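Protein Record: Sequence and Backbone Structure Tokens
======================================================
Scope: a single protein chain, as residues and as a discrete description of its fold.
Tokens: labelled as protein backbone structure tokens, with as many entries as the chain has residues.
Position: the record begins directly beneath this header, with no further notes in between.
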Amino acid sequence: MLCLGLAGGLNRVHENALGLAGAFLHDGAAVLVEDGRVIAAVEEERLNRIKHSNKFPSLAIRYCLAEAGAELRDVDAIGFYATESYCNALLGQLFAAQPDGAVPLDSRRLLHGLLTHEFGDQIDPERLHFVPHHEAHAVSAFAMSGLDESLILTIDGYGDFLSGSVAIGRGSQVTTIESFSQQQSLGLFYLEVVRFLGYKPFDEYKVMGLAPYGDRAVFRAAFDSFYELLADGGYRVHIDRIGAALIERGAIRRGGDRFEQRHCDVAAALQEALERIVLHMLRHRRDTIGQRNLCLAGGVAHNCTMNGKLLFSGMFDNIFVQPAAHDAGCALGAALMLSADLGAPAPREPLRRVYWGPDLADDETIEQLIEGWGAFLDLEHSDDAAEAAADLIAQGAVIGWVQGRSEFGPRALGNRSIVADPRPASNKDRINAMVKKREGYRPFAPSVLEEEAAEYFALPPGQNHFPFMNFVVPVREDRRELLGAITHVDGTARIQTVARQDNPAYWRLIAAFKARTGVPVVLNTSFNNNAEPIVDSAGDAIVSFLTTDLDALVIGRFVARKRVATAADWLALDVSLPDYVLLAQSRSLSHDGRRVTAYEARTSFSARVAATLSPALFDALMTVDGACGVEDLLQRAGAAHDPEPLLAELRELWARRLVRLVPARVQRTPHRLSRVAADAVA
């Protein structure tokens, strides 16, 4: 019995985003469950290469079906991650804003039409189900926790016009006992402060990382006016007060400005406020319900600093945080709910691994891919990838490490990771600059052999299994100087323990690093640059490697290093436009009142993601249909005699994933990088 859970948007990758609330559209995913067991799960962003994808999860569905050897017609039930009434209300808002649009006001008809168009199957509309958003969150956590009973808290921005819930899980049943209105949203409370610190939605984790640099007391009085703790474990937030108060105190920051101490102090006060509210809520409900197990889901559950405070509070004996706690995880909850409704048993074993995404290509295909980039890469074969990787990082290299099936959720857990020596404190600044192109304060996580974790990190008694990077814990004082690259300014780290039975390849890498250095810990961060999601396919990994300053790439049983490519090598590549890129020319007034023409590469998923083009390159790209040679493109642009300026412009667009560059022999040779038909080679 197959059940498919879906999250995400309601338009295709090349179409402009529908004007719907952001919570309705982001973090698309598909999860396929067979008789209560997860067969496959992947976020759409990993495949269509759009961060927090707000598109219909077509590629994710294709992958899940291919993994099961099934067609869409074989699926017994399909669940979407919101109620039908909520979807219809949002479609009504869209119609009011865009009355000339062609979007139907019936969400069931819209979803059915998308599935029919994308897959060609006539699906019985009765197989389509709209699942309450926070119930899907709750089930996704409790069903995978392995607990017989638990208190369940879901907290996020909003969904179904709510912002969270409290539920009780017993056996195979989840019963909601309380819901929080959208006006009580802790996600929106956090985001409102984030906006005044110069950040945008999905940047909440950056402010969490900034908080330890601040003094919570400086803005505590101001934040005390932003919320109230009520006697019955309730709370009230006053989001409308935040902006004026921060402006009055000169505590705001424009995006791109340097950070000053007051900004760190605001972040610290915000983090303290969130923790106080959540602990207040949970303490009352634990006492009244008498439950000492806790499951967490919803986007706010990714606040691993808050989770760490809960872990050490002593309030609960067991805490399980669903590793894909954000909206992509609702696809998991929806699939599990439908599976249970059809009589399948619920999962009873505690979740230990989430390597549910596409597998790497076979060795022959990976070798062909790397050889296709032969002008840019040197290829080495390795009899033992873990030993080769350990040699590299022990010698100071920062490497990409790509093995096996990709992880479901926002964390790289050792299969699509950047790995480095955790000891030199300089590695943190180095990786932030060379790969992520991000703020230097941002911390990195440690991956530690599970059996030795308690020697390096302060853990609750009897607990050493933390495989999903969901908790911030103290680094032991006598290890903080040793682990300079992963120890945050407040002496903590976002831990990932690695068990041999859960990820043998990654465990061997860490063990091999220990054999060379005596330290059973490596630095682990997600393998991507600042313009893209975590890599998924071998092609993604090669392109990310070539557009960052990583020292080496260990993929499958191969080691790749960069070569210095000539201008002729660049000219021999093929260029194409991703499906989500559109070219636009506009006329507007400049600041001095003159009419000027702008040439841009824009995207179908965000008005913020765009780049200004030179007129010559814009005109040349307008002629591209499919793929063409870079040399041919530059000839069309009139740059045959001096190609370097336009080559540099093209390479920058490539680094920002606004064009694709790929060797002609790779572009034109079919290969199987995964079971997804439309794999992103570049």
